[in-house]
């Protein structure tokens, strides 16, 4: 079982080092898709914003509808992945948190959500622990430091007991999973920044959910009590206390 999630920067959370499943691996499916755009599929990086903007090869000659079709094709690979795959994402309204770093805020939130997910799995008899894999970024040093602090002192919501190590950073060009994580992130960005839900709708059912709450998708916003997005609405409908809206 592998669990992917996205945070700025792009990342994967995985509860297993192996990608073996009963279905064809998601990476090989994306490789096959890449052959439509280059005879050497390993040379094709599926970077969502670059595809959408059509500003680089092999996407420059696509129409806008063709570019949207590529994004949707990658997201459909995620949507039809093996049954145990779960997604996590955090959308932050920056103006609601003027004195906090949005990347660090999202990273903390997603690490805790992934830990909660693994805790639930552990309670069901699954003893796996999790790994966090991120795209290489200039934030690597600060996120590594933040991760060590979480492991030592916990996050604002509690300790992390189910994540096995500090984050690993990889070049997205070499990882189809990170490229798919980028598409998940972009679909969340389009939904919350532009009101364009056509991409998020493809993968909406794959976000971690339990007891009627979409735990895998969170919208951090000062107006969450009136927001009608699926993430906020599911929390309000199931909240027993005001504090539970934060989870």
Secondary-structure topology with pairs:
Layout: E1 4-6, E2 11-14, H1 26-34, H2 48-53, H3 64-79, E3 87-92, H4 102-123, E4 131-135, H5 140-153, E5 168-170, H6 176-194, H7 200-203, E6 217-220, H8 230-238
Parallel strand pairs: 1-3, 3-6, 4-5
Antiparallel strand pairs: 2-4
Helix pairs in contact: 1-3
List key phrases describing it.
alpha/beta, 40% helix, disordered C terminus, 6 strands, 3-stranded parallel beta sheet, single chain, 247 residues, globular, 8 helices
Structure description:
By secondary structure, the chain is an alpha/beta fold. The chain has one domain. Helices cover 40% and strands 10% of the residues. It has 8 helices and 6 strands. It has helices at residues 26-34, 48-53, 64-79, 102-123, 140-153, 176-194, 200-203, 230-238; strands at 4-6, 11-14, 87-92, 131-135, 168-170, 217-220. A 3-stranded parallel β-sheet has the order 1-3-6, sandwiched between helices. Strands 2-4-5 form a 3-stranded mixed β-sheet, covered by helices on one side. Helix 1 runs antiparallel to helix 3. The radius of gyration is 18 Å and the shape is globular. The model is unreliable at 1-8, 16-23 and 241-245 (pLDDT under 50).
